[in-house]
Input
Amino acid sequence: MRTNAVFFARPLCDIDKQSLRVHFLQLDAADRHLRFGSTLNDSAVLHYVDGIDFERDEVYAISDDAQNILGVVHIAVTGREAELGLSVLAATRAQGIGNALFERAVMRLRNRCVREVLVRCLHQNAAMMHLAKKYGMKIEQDGTDREARLALPAATSGTYMLEWLQDRQANYIGKLQNQTRFGQSMLAAFPAGRADS
Ligand SMILES: CC(C)(COP(=O)(O)OP(=O)(O)OC[C@H]1O[C@@H](n2cnc3c(N)ncnc32)[C@H](O)[C@@H]1OP(=O)(O)O)[C@@H](O)C(=O)NCCC(=O)NCCS
Output
């Protein structure tokens, strides 16, 4: 059920690859088919993660308090075009994570002067087709596949400022989550009953 939660996507880098592996391996066969266009087995999923080039592409994730990745958007950039791949864990869908990742990716691309973004999806992918239409993407049919394209407006001082603020917020939340986990582990190691012993 959709909540009023606000999600902040943080940019990932090479050290996050293990968390990405864990995320993608949790997608079942049907989800892998929707996400990748074919039902990748585990070793193909791991190969995909190993191949992500953080110098060229960008990856944003939304995580829970324990830093498990709930949803991720991979932005593959080629010149002034980009392609998005989105995935959200089944248990955390319909809460706004997909929307938040899509909007974060579009903001990043505008600020990188990318002028068009593409999402490939299968015709039966009702949730992705809904998102594509909602954001005004132009949908082209290619057999059973759909290509949804969105022309991106130029960046403005407002988009640069908003992105800067969102990154700071995501960074702040990440630090808070780390400190909370550290505090909880210390409390577990030194339970109140042992404070005087
Ligand atoms: C597509 C996907 C990323 C959406 O993630 P999500 O976190 O559930 O997305 P959100 O909760 O932000 O929003 C989903 C929207 O689709 C709508 N939706 C969900 N299922 C739907 C369906 N079967 N038919 C029509 N609309 C649907 C929701 O009502 C919501 O609408 P809203 O934005 O107007 O409120 C997720 O379903 C997923 O990971 N699917 C498997 C991988 C995949 O298909 N990737 C896309 C191809 S790259």
